[in-house]
């Protein structure tokens, strides 16, 4: 700084714009973001404004020779993003798991896109969040197996994007299960089940053992990776298991397990009871699958031991219909049961004492009219339980041509969409990364700026918490 120019006034470069003085003093140098704006080179004479690019996202302020200062408005919030890839990766990992987050970040610049499209980053992103978001519901309609999105824009995944193709045909395929980003359907014409990955479009057809194809068929699909590698909803490259439940002519339950690692079916297992299966999907609690029967029984299949067991459940009484009850996980990890006698949820819990004797005890009764968003003064038999999300403890309830998601632990509800059908619902949860479809859309500068704003807000919040 030359004498007489005044005391230089410096500010922190990460949070404030800076203005650099020109040697000629004819104007003020303006610095622009090379990623969001074109570059304009100043003439050597200094007769005009010099527009210079900067490797940072925000301009800086320096004192000029006469002490003047100038600023310009940035399209993004005033926050400095790190030049170090490791630091930026840690920030991007903390973006929300919703489908639009990573595609928006990938639109900011080539550097960001290189980070968020890296398969290693995808694994880290899924591991960091653990539980993926609910993208929508698969159900069997008059048109076949369809996907119905439950998220609002910009996170809404179009139905056709997760279409099962020829495996969704109404008269040939039926839904059995949906879990860990996979969908299990049965092919009635060819005695097959098909494991579909709607995100990647991959599928695998499995011939069902003839002994299992004699009666009503139920099934479950789940990731077979260990706890270290398994991320619910991010299991696309991992091995999987298929568990099929069938009935003999005498309604005796049979079960068999297929492993994609060995590509073979295991031994057929049976249980000494009469079981009446009506197509309700199973509930996974820990490493055990549970199917409800219409005759006040529950089938328990241990995935580790490959054993079948029979459990008695509280009998259906009053106006409770068989298909208005579901197996759930109780608050302490025990087996639970929920009955819907509208407008009340009746909760049960199975307790086992030190002698191994199990008893069912009513735990609570919840009036649905206390939930925000649900209609009041509902009459008899106007509500139906459609499905259950094991990870979030959310029920799907059909009330007066509307489908609601209800979380009993939080005493909250949300309206998902309108529907006149009362069919079992299969929640589909998965992470959706840029290379899986959305980044192919045309993304303009406003979306890029939105991504920077989102990260800037995160940085400010993190700084406040620190």
TrEMBL record:
SMART domains: FBOX. Transmembrane segments: none annotated. InterPro entries: AT5G49610-like_b-prop, F-box-like_dom_sf, F-box_dom. Residues 81-125 form the F-box domain. Residues 1-83 are annotated as: Disordered. This is F-box domain-containing protein. It comes from Lolium multiflorum. The lineage of its organism: Eukaryota, Viridiplantae, Streptophyta, Embryophyta, Tracheophyta.
């Amino acid at each position: 700084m030359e004498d007489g120019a005044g005391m230089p006034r410096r500010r922190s470069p990460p949070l404030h714009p800076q203005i650099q003085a020109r040697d000629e003093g004819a104007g003020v140098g303006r610095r622009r973001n090379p990623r969001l704006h074109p570059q304009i080179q100043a003439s050597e004479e200094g007769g005009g404004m010099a527009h210079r690019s900067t490797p940072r996202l925000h301009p800086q302020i320096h004192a000029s020779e006469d002490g003047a200062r100038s600023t310009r408005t940035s399209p993004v919030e005033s926050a400095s993003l790190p030049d170090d890839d490791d630091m930026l990766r840690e920030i991007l990992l903390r973006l929300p798991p919703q489908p639009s987050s990573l595609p928006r970040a990938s639109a900011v610049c080539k550097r960001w896109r290189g980070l968020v499209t890296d398969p290693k980053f995808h694994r880290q992103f899924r591991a960091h969040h653990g539980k993926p978001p609910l993208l929508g519901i698969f159900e069997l309609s008059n048109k076949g197996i369809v996907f119905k999105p439950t998220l609002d824009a910009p996170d809404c995944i179009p139905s056709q994007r997760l279409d099962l193709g020829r495996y969704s045909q109404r008269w040939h395929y039926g839904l059995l299960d949906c879990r860990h980003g996979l969908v299990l359907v049965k092919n009635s014409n060819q005695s097959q089940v098909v494991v579909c990955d709607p995100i990647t479009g991959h599928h695998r057809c499995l011939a069902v053992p003839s002994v299992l194809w004699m009666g009503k068929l139920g099934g479950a699909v789940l990731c077979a990776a260990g706890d270290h590698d398994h991320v619910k909803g991010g299991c696309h490259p991992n091995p999987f298991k298929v568990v099929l439940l069938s009935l003999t002519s005498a309604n005796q339950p049979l079960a068999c397990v297929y492993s994609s690692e060995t590509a073979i079916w295991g031994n057929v297992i049976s249980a000494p009871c009469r079981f009446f299966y009506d197509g309700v999907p199973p509930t996974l609690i820990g490493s055990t699958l549970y199917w409800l029967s219409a005759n006040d029984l529950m089938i328990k299949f241990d995935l580790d031991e490959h054993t079948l067991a029979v459990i008695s459940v509280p009998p259906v009484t009053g106006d409770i219909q068989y298909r208005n009850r579901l197996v759930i996980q109780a608050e302490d990890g025990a087996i639970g049961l929920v009955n819907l006698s509208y407008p009340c949820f009746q909760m049960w819990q199975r307790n086992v004492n030190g002698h191994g004797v199990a008893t069912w005890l009513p735990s609570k009764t919840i009036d649905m009219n206390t939930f925000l968003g649900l209609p009041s003064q509902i009459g008899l038999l106007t509500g139906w339980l459609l499905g259950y999300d094991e990870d979030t403890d959310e029920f799907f309830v059909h009330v007066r041509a509307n489908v609601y998601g209800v979380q009993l632990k939080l005493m909250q509800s949300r309206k998902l969409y309108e529907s006149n059908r009362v069919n079992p619902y299969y929640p589909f949860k998965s992470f959706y990364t840029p290379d899986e479809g959305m980044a192919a859309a045309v993304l303009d500068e406003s979306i890029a700026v939105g991504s920077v704003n989102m990260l800037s807000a995160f940085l400010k919040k993190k700084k406040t918490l620190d």
